[in-house]
Specification:
Strand content: 5-15%
Radius of gyration: 32 Å
CATH architecture of the largest domain: Orthogonal Bundle
Shape: elongated
CATH topology of the largest domain: hpI Integrase, Chain A
Number of strands: 10
Order of helices and strands: EHEEEEHHHHHHHHEEEHEEHHHH
Helix content: 40-55%
Distance between the termini: 89 Å
Structural class: alpha+beta
Number of helices: 14
Protein backbone atom coordinates (compact mmCIF):
# COMPACT_ATOMS: atom_id res chain seq x y z
CA UNK A 1 0.00 0.00 0.00
CA UNK A 2 1.42 3.43 -0.92
CA UNK A 3 1.98 6.20 1.61
CA UNK A 4 -0.83 8.19 -0.01
CA UNK A 5 -3.31 5.43 0.77
CA UNK A 6 -2.07 5.37 4.39
CA UNK A 7 -3.57 8.85 4.87
CA UNK A 8 -7.25 9.57 4.29
CA UNK A 9 -10.11 11.53 5.81
CA UNK A 10 -11.40 9.63 8.82
CA UNK A 11 -14.99 8.61 9.23
CA UNK A 12 -16.31 5.38 10.65
CA UNK A 13 -17.18 4.17 7.14
CA UNK A 14 -13.86 5.28 5.56
CA UNK A 15 -11.94 3.52 8.32
CA UNK A 16 -13.87 0.30 7.72
CA UNK A 17 -13.18 0.60 4.00
CA UNK A 18 -9.55 1.84 3.85
CA UNK A 19 -7.92 0.78 7.12
CA UNK A 20 -7.28 -2.75 5.91
CA UNK A 21 -5.24 -5.37 7.69
CA UNK A 22 -1.77 -6.15 6.30
CA UNK A 23 -0.56 -9.69 5.71
CA UNK A 24 2.20 -9.27 8.28
CA UNK A 25 2.89 -6.85 11.10
CA UNK A 26 0.76 -3.77 11.75
CA UNK A 27 -0.32 -0.92 9.51
CA UNK A 28 -0.68 2.70 10.62
CA UNK A 29 -3.23 5.02 8.99
CA UNK A 30 -3.45 8.77 9.67
CA UNK A 31 -6.34 11.21 9.39
CA UNK A 32 -5.48 13.72 6.66
CA UNK A 33 -7.23 16.50 8.58
CA UNK A 34 -4.43 16.39 11.20
CA UNK A 35 -6.90 17.24 13.95
CA UNK A 36 -4.77 16.84 15.98
CA UNK A 37 -1.50 16.16 14.16
CA UNK A 38 -0.47 12.52 14.46
CA UNK A 39 -3.98 11.19 15.11
CA UNK A 40 -4.42 7.79 13.51
CA UNK A 41 -5.35 4.17 13.83
CA UNK A 42 -3.21 1.04 14.03
CA UNK A 43 -4.51 -2.12 12.36
CA UNK A 44 -3.19 -5.56 13.25
CA UNK A 45 -2.40 -8.23 10.66
CA UNK A 46 -5.16 -10.16 8.92
CA UNK A 47 -6.53 -13.20 10.76
CA UNK A 48 -6.87 -16.47 8.88
CA UNK A 49 -10.25 -17.36 10.37
CA UNK A 50 -11.93 -14.26 8.98
CA UNK A 51 -12.23 -12.44 12.29
CA UNK A 52 -11.80 -8.66 12.07
CA UNK A 53 -8.26 -7.44 12.85
CA UNK A 54 -7.54 -5.44 15.97
CA UNK A 55 -7.80 -1.68 15.47
CA UNK A 56 -6.45 0.85 18.00
CA UNK A 57 -6.66 4.63 17.98
CA UNK A 58 -3.16 6.08 18.27
CA UNK A 59 -1.35 9.40 18.56
CA UNK A 60 2.13 9.78 17.07
CA UNK A 61 4.11 12.93 17.89
CA UNK A 62 7.76 14.01 17.65
CA UNK A 63 9.12 14.73 21.14
CA UNK A 64 12.62 16.19 21.41
CA UNK A 65 13.46 15.01 17.90
CA UNK A 66 12.21 11.45 18.42
CA UNK A 67 8.93 9.99 17.21
CA UNK A 68 6.74 8.59 19.99
CA UNK A 69 3.49 6.71 19.67
CA UNK A 70 0.74 6.30 22.25
CA UNK A 71 -2.20 3.88 22.16
CA UNK A 72 -5.45 5.62 23.08
CA UNK A 73 -8.45 3.26 22.87
CA UNK A 74 -9.76 0.32 20.86
CA UNK A 75 -11.84 0.81 17.72
CA UNK A 76 -14.85 0.59 17.57
CA UNK A 77 -15.25 0.47 21.37
CA UNK A 78 -14.45 4.17 21.30
CA UNK A 79 -16.00 6.09 18.47
CA UNK A 80 -14.25 8.58 16.23
CA UNK A 81 -15.41 11.73 18.05
CA UNK A 82 -14.39 10.45 21.48
CA UNK A 83 -11.04 9.20 20.21
CA UNK A 84 -10.33 12.50 18.44
CA UNK A 85 -11.10 14.51 21.57
CA UNK A 86 -8.80 12.32 23.66
CA UNK A 87 -6.09 12.69 21.03
CA UNK A 88 -6.51 16.50 21.18
CA UNK A 89 -6.17 16.48 24.98
CA UNK A 90 -3.07 14.32 24.86
CA UNK A 91 -1.52 16.35 22.04
CA UNK A 92 -2.00 19.58 24.01
CA UNK A 93 -0.45 17.98 27.09
CA UNK A 94 2.58 16.78 25.12
CA UNK A 95 3.00 20.16 23.44
CA UNK A 96 3.00 21.80 26.88
CA UNK A 97 5.66 19.41 28.15
CA UNK A 98 3.33 17.34 30.32
CA UNK A 99 3.03 13.57 30.56
CA UNK A 100 -0.40 12.67 29.15
CA UNK A 101 -0.37 9.36 31.05
CA UNK A 102 0.30 10.93 34.44
CA UNK A 103 -2.19 9.99 37.14
CA UNK A 104 -4.78 12.78 37.53
CA UNK A 105 -4.26 14.94 40.59
CA UNK A 106 -7.73 13.92 41.79
CA UNK A 107 -6.29 10.47 42.49
CA UNK A 108 -3.22 11.72 44.35
CA UNK A 109 -3.22 11.64 48.14
CA UNK A 110 -1.22 13.54 50.71
CA UNK A 111 0.76 10.31 51.23
CA UNK A 112 1.68 10.37 47.51
CA UNK A 113 2.63 14.02 47.88
CA UNK A 114 5.03 13.46 50.78
CA UNK A 115 6.48 10.33 49.15
CA UNK A 116 7.33 12.26 45.98
CA UNK A 117 8.86 15.11 47.99
CA UNK A 118 11.06 12.74 50.01
CA UNK A 119 12.14 10.93 46.83
CA UNK A 120 13.19 14.31 45.42
CA UNK A 121 15.16 15.08 48.60
CA UNK A 122 17.00 11.78 48.26
CA UNK A 123 17.63 12.32 44.54
CA UNK A 124 19.08 15.76 45.33
CA UNK A 125 21.27 14.20 48.03
CA UNK A 126 19.93 16.29 50.87
CA UNK A 127 21.38 15.71 54.31
CA UNK A 128 20.28 12.35 55.82
CA UNK A 129 18.99 14.16 58.88
CA UNK A 130 16.84 16.48 56.74
CA UNK A 131 15.35 13.44 55.01
CA UNK A 132 14.68 11.56 58.25
CA UNK A 133 13.14 14.72 59.76
CA UNK A 134 10.79 15.05 56.77
CA UNK A 135 9.79 11.37 57.03
CA UNK A 136 9.12 11.74 60.76
CA UNK A 137 7.23 15.04 60.42
CA UNK A 138 5.02 13.72 57.63
CA UNK A 139 3.85 10.88 59.87
CA UNK A 140 3.88 12.75 63.18
CA UNK A 141 2.01 15.87 62.13
CA UNK A 142 -0.02 14.64 59.16
CA UNK A 143 -0.61 10.95 59.93
CA UNK A 144 -4.40 11.14 60.11
CA UNK A 145 -4.58 13.10 56.85
CA UNK A 146 -2.21 10.99 54.72
CA UNK A 147 -4.88 9.10 52.77
CA UNK A 148 -6.90 12.23 51.99
CA UNK A 149 -7.00 13.26 48.29
CA UNK A 150 -5.07 16.47 47.63
CA UNK A 151 -8.08 18.17 46.10
CA UNK A 152 -9.95 17.79 49.42
CA UNK A 153 -7.70 20.28 51.25
CA UNK A 154 -8.86 23.88 51.28
CA UNK A 155 -7.26 27.11 52.45
CA UNK A 156 -9.83 27.40 55.22
CA UNK A 157 -9.00 23.93 56.52
CA UNK A 158 -5.22 24.50 56.38
CA UNK A 159 -5.64 27.71 58.32
CA UNK A 160 -7.67 25.83 60.95
CA UNK A 161 -5.14 22.98 61.10
CA UNK A 162 -2.29 25.46 61.58
CA UNK A 163 -4.15 27.26 64.36
CA UNK A 164 -4.89 23.97 66.13
CA UNK A 165 -1.28 22.80 65.85
CA UNK A 166 -0.08 26.18 67.18
CA UNK A 167 -1.72 25.50 70.55
CA UNK A 168 1.07 24.65 73.00
CA UNK A 169 -1.05 21.77 74.30
CA UNK A 170 -1.01 20.25 70.79
CA UNK A 171 2.34 20.98 69.13
CA UNK A 172 3.16 24.65 69.64
CA UNK A 173 3.81 27.65 67.33
CA UNK A 174 7.23 26.64 65.98
CA UNK A 175 6.13 23.05 65.33
CA UNK A 176 2.97 24.25 63.55
CA UNK A 177 5.04 26.40 61.19
CA UNK A 178 7.45 23.52 60.59
CA UNK A 179 4.67 21.06 59.79
CA UNK A 180 2.89 23.39 57.40
CA UNK A 181 6.08 24.40 55.62
CA UNK A 182 6.71 20.71 54.92
CA UNK A 183 3.15 20.48 53.56
CA UNK A 184 3.80 23.50 51.33
CA UNK A 185 7.12 22.16 50.01
CA UNK A 186 5.60 18.75 49.21
CA UNK A 187 2.57 20.34 47.54
CA UNK A 188 4.75 22.54 45.32
CA UNK A 189 6.77 19.49 44.32
CA UNK A 190 3.55 17.73 43.31
CA UNK A 191 2.52 20.76 41.23
CA UNK A 192 5.40 19.98 38.88
CA UNK A 193 3.70 16.69 38.06
CA UNK A 194 0.10 17.90 38.12
CA UNK A 195 -0.12 21.41 36.73
CA UNK A 196 -3.87 21.41 37.31
CA UNK A 197 -3.20 21.57 41.05
CA UNK A 198 -3.90 25.04 42.46
CA UNK A 199 -1.36 26.89 44.57
CA UNK A 200 -0.75 25.39 48.00
CA UNK A 201 -3.66 25.95 50.42
CA UNK A 202 -1.08 27.07 52.99
CA UNK A 203 -1.39 30.52 51.36
CA UNK A 204 -4.09 31.26 53.92
CA UNK A 205 -1.78 30.72 56.89
CA UNK A 206 -0.58 33.55 59.10
CA UNK A 207 2.78 32.17 60.16
CA UNK A 208 3.78 32.31 63.79
CA UNK A 209 7.34 33.26 62.93
CA UNK A 210 10.33 32.89 65.19
CA UNK A 211 8.99 32.84 68.73
CA UNK A 212 12.38 33.49 70.36
CA UNK A 213 14.70 36.32 69.37
CA UNK A 214 18.08 34.89 68.42
CA UNK A 215 20.69 37.29 69.75
CA UNK A 216 24.44 36.76 69.57
CA UNK A 217 26.21 36.27 72.85
CA UNK A 218 26.75 39.70 74.41
CA UNK A 219 30.33 40.96 74.45
CA UNK A 220 29.91 42.02 78.07
CA UNK A 221 29.63 38.38 79.14
CA UNK A 222 31.95 36.93 76.52
CA UNK A 223 35.01 36.67 78.83
CA UNK A 224 32.98 34.71 81.39
CA UNK A 225 31.43 32.60 78.64
CA UNK A 226 34.89 31.59 77.36
CA UNK A 227 36.11 30.89 80.88
CA UNK A 228 33.05 28.70 81.49
CA UNK A 229 33.96 26.53 78.49
CA UNK A 230 37.28 25.79 80.18
CA UNK A 231 35.82 25.44 83.68
CA UNK A 232 32.48 23.65 83.16
CA UNK A 233 32.68 21.67 79.91
CA UNK A 234 34.69 18.78 81.35
CA UNK A 235 34.97 16.68 78.17
CA UNK A 236 37.90 18.20 76.21
CA UNK A 237 36.46 17.00 72.88
CA UNK A 238 33.18 18.81 73.50
CA UNK A 239 34.97 21.89 74.83
CA UNK A 240 37.06 22.14 71.67
CA UNK A 241 33.94 21.56 69.58
CA UNK A 242 32.32 24.66 71.12
CA UNK A 243 35.49 26.68 70.59
CA UNK A 244 35.66 25.72 66.90
CA UNK A 245 31.97 26.56 66.45
CA UNK A 246 32.55 30.00 67.94
CA UNK A 247 35.71 30.71 65.92
CA UNK A 248 34.48 29.46 62.51
CA UNK A 249 30.70 30.03 62.47
CA UNK A 250 30.22 26.51 61.07
CA UNK A 251 26.80 24.88 61.25
CA UNK A 252 26.47 22.23 63.92
CA UNK A 253 26.54 19.15 61.67
CA UNK A 254 29.27 20.62 59.46
CA UNK A 255 31.45 20.97 62.54
CA UNK A 256 30.56 17.74 64.36
CA UNK A 257 31.11 15.54 61.30
CA UNK A 258 34.61 16.75 60.35
CA UNK A 259 37.00 13.90 59.55
CA UNK A 260 40.75 14.26 59.32
CA UNK A 261 40.73 13.85 55.53
CA UNK A 262 38.65 17.07 55.32
CA UNK A 263 41.60 19.07 56.71
CA UNK A 264 44.58 19.91 54.50
CA UNK A 265 47.91 21.47 55.42
CA UNK A 266 47.33 21.36 59.17
CA UNK A 267 51.07 21.61 59.90
CA UNK A 268 51.66 24.37 57.34
CA UNK A 269 50.99 28.09 57.30
CA UNK A 270 47.95 27.62 55.05
CA UNK A 271 45.62 24.98 56.55
CA UNK A 272 42.13 24.58 55.06
CA UNK A 273 38.89 22.80 55.89
CA UNK A 274 36.63 21.29 53.22
CA UNK A 275 32.94 20.53 53.81
CA UNK A 276 31.82 18.15 51.06
CA UNK A 277 28.14 17.81 51.94
CA UNK A 278 26.85 20.87 53.83
CA UNK A 279 23.35 22.29 53.94
CA UNK A 280 22.24 22.34 50.31
CA UNK A 281 24.04 19.09 49.45
CA UNK A 282 27.24 18.43 47.49
CA UNK A 283 26.51 21.30 45.10
CA UNK A 284 27.03 23.67 48.04
CA UNK A 285 30.40 22.12 49.06
CA UNK A 286 32.92 24.71 50.22
CA UNK A 287 36.46 25.17 51.52
CA UNK A 288 37.53 27.75 54.08
CA UNK A 289 40.96 28.70 55.47
CA UNK A 290 41.68 27.83 59.10
CA UNK A 291 42.99 30.63 61.27
CA UNK A 292 46.09 29.92 63.34
CA UNK A 293 44.15 29.54 66.64
CA UNK A 294 41.66 27.11 65.06
CA UNK A 295 44.48 25.10 63.47
CA UNK A 296 46.08 24.91 66.91
CA UNK A 297 42.85 23.46 68.34
CA UNK A 298 42.75 20.84 65.58
CA UNK A 299 46.38 19.85 66.26
CA UNK A 300 45.52 19.48 69.94
CA UNK A 301 42.62 17.22 69.04
CA UNK A 302 44.86 15.17 66.75
CA UNK A 303 47.40 14.61 69.51
CA UNK A 304 44.88 13.82 72.26
CA UNK A 305 42.63 11.69 70.05
CA UNK A 306 45.62 9.54 69.11
CA UNK A 307 45.71 8.38 72.75
CA UNK A 308 41.98 8.03 73.52
CA UNK A 309 40.55 7.30 70.04
CA UNK A 310 43.60 6.00 68.14
CA UNK A 311 41.75 4.71 65.06
CA UNK A 312 38.96 7.29 64.78
CA UNK A 313 38.58 9.28 61.57
CA UNK A 314 36.53 11.93 63.39
CA UNK A 315 38.02 15.12 64.80
CA UNK A 316 35.30 15.22 67.48
CA UNK A 317 34.75 11.54 68.34
CA UNK A 318 32.58 9.81 70.92
CA UNK A 319 31.51 6.25 71.68
CA UNK A 320 27.95 5.40 70.67
CA UNK A 321 25.49 3.07 72.38
CA UNK A 322 26.65 0.26 70.13
CA UNK A 323 30.21 0.76 71.46
CA UNK A 324 31.35 2.04 68.06
CA UNK A 325 33.24 5.31 67.71
CA UNK A 326 31.26 7.98 65.87
CA UNK A 327 31.16 11.77 65.86
CA UNK A 328 29.59 13.81 68.67
CA UNK A 329 25.83 13.85 68.17
CA UNK A 330 25.02 17.36 69.38
CA UNK A 331 26.73 20.59 70.36
CA UNK A 332 24.38 21.57 73.19
CA UNK A 333 25.97 22.39 76.54
CA UNK A 334 23.81 22.95 79.61
CA UNK A 335 26.61 24.82 81.36
CA UNK A 336 26.53 27.51 78.63
CA UNK A 337 22.79 28.01 78.25
CA UNK A 338 22.76 30.88 80.74
CA UNK A 339 24.79 32.93 78.28
CA UNK A 340 22.22 32.32 75.52
CA UNK A 341 24.44 29.75 73.80
CA UNK A 342 23.09 27.32 71.25
CA UNK A 343 25.06 25.93 68.28
CA UNK A 344 23.29 28.33 65.94
CA UNK A 345 23.78 31.28 68.29
CA UNK A 346 27.51 30.59 67.92
CA UNK A 347 27.02 31.14 64.18
CA UNK A 348 25.11 34.38 64.85
CA UNK A 349 27.91 35.54 67.15
CA UNK A 350 30.57 34.80 64.54
CA UNK A 351 28.58 36.69 61.90
CA UNK A 352 28.24 39.69 64.23
CA UNK A 353 31.98 39.58 64.91
CA UNK A 354 32.63 39.62 61.15
CA UNK A 355 30.72 42.87 60.84
CA UNK A 356 32.36 44.52 63.86
CA UNK A 357 35.83 43.36 62.81
CA UNK A 358 35.36 45.20 59.51
CA UNK A 359 34.76 42.32 57.08
CA UNK A 360 32.65 43.20 54.07
CA UNK A 361 29.47 41.28 53.29
CA UNK A 362 31.03 39.21 50.51
CA UNK A 363 33.81 37.88 52.76
CA UNK A 364 31.33 37.17 55.54
CA UNK A 365 29.10 35.18 53.17
CA UNK A 366 32.10 33.21 51.92
CA UNK A 367 33.22 32.26 55.44
CA UNK A 368 29.65 31.31 56.44
CA UNK A 369 28.90 29.59 53.10
CA UNK A 370 25.85 31.77 52.54
CA UNK A 371 24.56 31.93 49.00
CA UNK A 372 24.28 35.31 47.35
CA UNK A 373 21.31 36.38 45.24
CA UNK A 374 23.21 39.36 43.90
CA UNK A 375 24.47 38.63 40.36
CA UNK A 376 27.60 40.77 40.81
CA UNK A 377 28.53 38.95 44.02
CA UNK A 378 27.90 35.67 42.20
CA UNK A 379 30.64 36.60 39.73
CA UNK A 380 33.11 37.59 42.46
CA UNK A 381 35.15 34.68 43.85
CA UNK A 382 37.42 35.53 46.76
CA UNK A 383 40.75 33.69 46.98
CA UNK A 384 41.61 31.50 49.95
CA UNK A 385 44.61 33.75 50.55
CA UNK A 386 42.41 36.80 50.97
CA UNK A 387 39.86 34.89 53.09
CA UNK A 388 42.66 33.64 55.35
CA UNK A 389 43.48 37.22 56.31
CA UNK A 390 39.79 37.92 56.93
CA UNK A 391 39.41 34.78 59.06
CA UNK A 392 42.45 35.73 61.15
CA UNK A 393 40.97 39.19 61.63
CA UNK A 394 37.60 37.99 62.94
CA UNK A 395 39.15 35.31 65.19
CA UNK A 396 41.50 37.91 66.69
CA UNK A 397 38.43 40.10 67.34
CA UNK A 398 36.57 37.25 69.09
CA UNK A 399 39.54 36.23 71.25
CA UNK A 400 40.02 39.88 72.13
CA UNK A 401 36.42 40.05 73.33
CA UNK A 402 37.03 36.81 75.28
CA UNK A 403 40.14 38.42 76.83
CA UNK A 404 42.33 35.41 76.05
CA UNK A 405 45.55 35.13 74.10
CA UNK A 406 45.48 33.36 70.74
CA UNK A 407 47.75 30.56 71.94
CA UNK A 408 45.42 29.93 74.90
CA UNK A 409 42.29 29.41 72.77
Amino acid sequence: MTNAKRRFRFSMSSIAKHAVAPETGDAIYFDDRADPPGFGIRVGKARPNGEPPTRTWILQVDVNGKSRRWSLDRFPTKGLDEARQKARDWYNAIRDGRDPEAKPAEGATLRDCFARHIRAMKANRKQPRSISDAEYDAQHYWGKYLDRPLHSFSRVELDEIHQTMSDKKVHGPAAADRACRLFRAAWRNMMRLHEELPDSPTRSIIWNGQTEERKPIAWTVFPEFWATIEREVKNPVRADLVRVLMLTGLRSLDCRSIVWSDIAGLDTDAPTLHRPNPKGGPKAAFTIPLSAPVARIFRRRRDENAIVYPRSEFVFPTVGRDAKVTHVHNCEEDALRGFGYTPHIARHTFASACAEAGLDVLATKALLNHRSKDITEHYQKLSLGFLRGEAEKVVAFLLGKAQVKAEAA
